[in-house]
Design a protein that fits this description.
- By secondary structure, this protein is an alpha/beta fold.
- The protein has five helices and eight strands.
- A hairpin with a 5-residue loop joins strand 4 and strand 5.
- Helix 4 crosses helix 5.
Amino acid sequence: MGRTTGDSDRRIRRRALLVGGMAAAAGTAVLARDELRRLWWRVPGVEKPRKAGEVDFAGARWTAASSANFRWADRPDDYAIDRVVIHVTEGSFASAVQVFQDPGHGAAAHYVVGQDGRVTQMIRELDVAYHAGNREYNERSVGIEHAGFVDRPQDFTDAMYAASARLTARICARYGIPVDREHIVGHVEVPGTDHTDPGPHWDWDRYLRLVRRAGTAPDPTPTPTPA
């Protein structure tokens, strides 16, 4: 009697082990499939389907950067977005837009903000822009250029601050980015960079106040706005 019970127990245990192993294998296959799908979008040159002229910020107009100046991606699914990087163009609004369309330039930001408050989006936020000079920061951040020069405080106009703050507030709300100086940084603060922007005349206290204030306003729905 004891042997029969023992044999039955062993058979039950073997069956449970087999079923459990099959379930574990199935679970592993699902995880592997999901990981492969995520990794697929990391392959350079893979373009996720998107609508032509669509913008992520409702106040922006669309002008496409050269595809040589960014990498197709599927953020935040493949790379979490937890930073906004503030740049200054060291030139005019028009020259920044023009150079970001040049495939030989090798760099571009997601957005360009003008002194009159206009905002042009050149790269979708889901893609990795070559703007920070640091691969990890490129993959985890959204880059915003501001037309002007770091040594000219008059270039940082009220209209520019207000428009940029609304833009940054929407980005922070979209990805759950804290509105503080750890997560909203200047290009100069990116590790390994040799840039000095936005420079000593950029008013960080004012800017963060404006971003927080803009964060309480309703979030408009992005619409296609081709240039």
